[in-house]
TrEMBL record:
Organism: Methanoculleus caldifontis
A GO term, aspect molecular function: ATP binding
Membrane topology value: Peripheral membrane protein
Protein family membership: Belongs to the ABC transporter superfamily.
InterPro entries: AAA+_ATPase (IPR003593), ABC_transporter-like_ATP-bd (IPR003439), ABC_transporter-like_CS (IPR017871), ABC_transpr_CbiO/EcfA_su (IPR015856), Co_trans_ATP-bd (IPR005876), ECF_ABC_transporter_ATP-bd (IPR050095), P-loop_NTPase (IPR027417)
Chain's role: Probably part of an ABC transporter complex. Responsible for energy coupling to the transport system. Part of an ABC transporter complex. Responsible for energy coupling to the transport system.
Cell wall biogenesis/degradation as UniProt keyword: no
Gene3D superfamilies linked to this entry: P-loop containing nucleotide triphosphate hydrolases
PROSITE patterns, per the entry: ABC_TRANSPORTER_1, ABC_TRANSPORTER_2
Protein name: ABC transporter ATP-binding protein
Entries under SUPFAM superfamilies matching the protein: P-loop containing nucleoside triphosphate hydrolases
C-alpha cells in the first residue's frame, strides 16, 4: 500500500466503566478507497470510526491523518473535521437547525466562509443529494431517507476528503438503502475516500474494495471482500454469514461446476460466468435488446411516453434522485430504481429493451459501464439516446462492436 491517508496504530479504548471497546487495533486506509468495517453488534466499529475525526481520543496508540498524528486542541480538531466528515447512524443526532437550508449551512458558516460561498456550498450539496426544493422544510418532518440525505449534505458542504458513515443504511428500506449506497459510490468515484461500518455482509461484499472484519474490539481480518468473506471460520468467529452470491459461487467452484476466476459480485457477473462455463465462451446472440438512455434534465416526458406507446420499451429504470423526481413528476412508472445498469444489461442479453433515465455525469457512467461490459463480454450492446435535440429514438449509437 502507498502511504495511507488514515492510519490507526495499536489503538486501545474503553468507555468509562466499560470493558475494552478497542483492544489494540491497527488499521490503514488508502486514499480513494472504499472500506467497510464489518462486524456484529458491539464489535467496536463505531468506536473505531469515532477515532478518525478525533471525536474519541485513544487511551493508548496513535491515529494519523495524512501522515501526521492527530492533535486534540480545538483548532486542530476543527481543521481535521473539515477534512474528515462523519455521518452518524441516526440523522436526528446530526440535524440541529429548524430548516434544511440552515442545517446544511451550519458547517460552512462555522468554517467562517463568506455568505456567497455558504449559499453556493448549500446549493451544491443539496443538489448532489437530490434535495433541491427542500431548503425551507423543517428536517424533523422528513422521512428517514430524506433526513439521511440532509445529514450527508451537511457534511458534503464542507468538502471533506474523507467521508465516514456509521451504518449508512440502518433503518432505511431496501430501495433507500441502495440509493444511499449509489450516492456513496458516486462520492468515491469523484475521488473521495469513503469508510462505512455495517453488519450487512451482502452490502459490504458488493460495495467495498476493502473489508476490515472486527469482533470484540479487535481486527480479525482485512483484505478484499471475496477473500475475507470466503473464510467461513472467520465469519463464524464474527457471528456473521457469508454473502449469498459468494457462498453459492464457492460451492459451485468446489464441485467444479463453474469456471474459476475472481468471484462474481452481481447477478450479471454470475450469469456470465455460468454461460462461459457451459459454452466455453459467452455465446453470441443474434438479437440483443436496446438500452435507451434519457437525460432527465433535457427531455420531456412525451419522448418517453412515445417510446412506451410504440411498444419499444419493456422496462424503465431511473438512476439518481433527480431522475426519480422527474419520473414521479411525469408519472412514469419505474421498474428499476437501483442496480439499474446491470438489470438493463441482463434484459438486453435476452432481447428485451429498456430505458434508463438519469442526469449529469451519470449519463457518461452508463455509457462507460455498458461499453466496458460489451468489450469484456464480446457482446455488442446498443445505447440509444432519447429526446436530445436533433436526435430521435431511432438514432443508434454503438458503444462497442
Ligand atoms: N457511550 C458508551 N458508553 C459505554 N459503553 C459504550 C458506549 N458506546 C459503546 N460502548 C461499548 O463499547 C463496545 C463497542 O461498541 P461500538 O458501538 O463501537 O460497537 P459497534 O460494532 O459499532 O456495534 P453496533 O453494530 O451495535 O453499532 C460495546 O461493548 C458497547 O457496549
Amino acid at each position: 500500500m502507498t502511504t495511507p491517508l488514515l492510519e490507526i496504530d495499536n489503538v486501545t479504548y474503553a468507555y468509562p466503566n466499560g470493558p475494552a471497546a478497542l483492544a489494540g487495533v491497527s488499521v490503514r486506509i488508502a486514499a480513494g478507497s472504499k472500506t467497510a468495517l464489518v462486524g456484529p453488534n458491539g464489535a467496536g466499529k463505531s468506536t473505531l470510526l469515532l477515532m478518525l475525526n478525533g471525536m474519541l481520543r485513544p487511551a493508548s496508540g496513535t491515529v494519523r491523518f495524512d501522515g501526521r498524528p492527530l492533535a486534540y486542541d480545538t483548532r486542530s480538531l476543527r481543521d481535521l473535521r473539515r477534512r474528515v466528515g462523519f455521518v452518524f447512524q441516526n440523522p436526528d443526532v446530526q440535524i440541529i437547525a429548524p430548516t434544511v437550508e440552515a442545517d446544511v449551512a451550519f458547517g460552512p458558516v462555522n468554517l467562517g466562509l463568506p455568505p456567497d460561498a455558504v449559499r453556493r456550498a448549500v446549493r451544491d450539496a443539496l443538489g448532489y443529494v437530490g434535495l433541491h426544493g427542500y431548503e425551507k422544510r423543517p428536517p424533523h418532518h422528513l422521512s428517514g431517507g430524506e433526513k439521511k440525505r440532509v445529514a450527508i449534505a451537511g457534511i458534503l458542504a464542507m468538502e471533506p476528503a474523507v467521508l465516514v458513515f456509521d451504518e449508512p443504511t440502518n433503518t432505511l428500506d431496501p430501495a433507500s438503502s441502495e440509493e444511499v449506497m449509489e450516492l456513496l459510490d458516486e462520492l468515491a468515484s469523484g475521488g473521495r475516500t469513503v469508510l462505512i461500518s455495517t453488519h450487512d455482509v451482502e452490502l459490504a461484499y458488493r460495495w467495498a474494495d476493502s473489508i476490515i472484519l472486527m469482533e470484540r474490539g479487535s481486527v480479525l481480518a482485512r483484505g478484499p471482500p471475496e477473500e475475507v468473506f470466503s473464510d467461513h471460520g472467520l465469519l463464524a468467529a464474527a457471528r456473521l454469514k457469508p454473502p449469498a452470491l459468494l457462498d453459492l459461487y464457492n460451492e459451485l467452484d468446489l464441485r467444479g461446476i463453474v469456471a474459476r476466476g475472481v468471484p462474481p459480485k452481481s447477478v450479471l457477473e454470475f450469469t456470465d460466468r455460468i454461460e462461459r462455463t457451459l459454452h466455453g465462451h459467452v455465446p453470441a446472440r443474434d438479437e440483443t435488446g436496446t438500452i435507451y438512455l434519457c437525460d432527465a434534465d433535457r427531455t420531456g416526458g412525451d419522448a418517453i411516453r412515445q417510446l412506451a406507446e410504440e411498444g419499444r420499451v419493456d422496462h424503465v429504470g431511473a438512476m439518481g434522485t433527480r431522475a426519480k423526481e422527474f419520473a414521479n413528476r411525469e408519472r412514469i412508472l419505474l421498474d428499476y430504481t437501483y442496480g439499474v445498469i446491470d438489470k438493463c444489461i441482463l434484459k438486453a442479453l435476452i432481447g428485451e429493451n429498456s430505458l434508463i433515465i438519469t442526469t449529469g455525469g451519470m449519463l457518461d457512467h452508463v455509457r462507460h459501464r455498458i461499453g466496458e461490459y460489451s468489450a469484456e463480454s464480446g457482446r455488442a450492446l446498443a445505447v440509444t439516446p432519447v429526446g436530445e435535440p436533433g436526435i430521435t429514438g431511432r438514432c443508434r449509437e454503438r458503444v462497442a462492436e
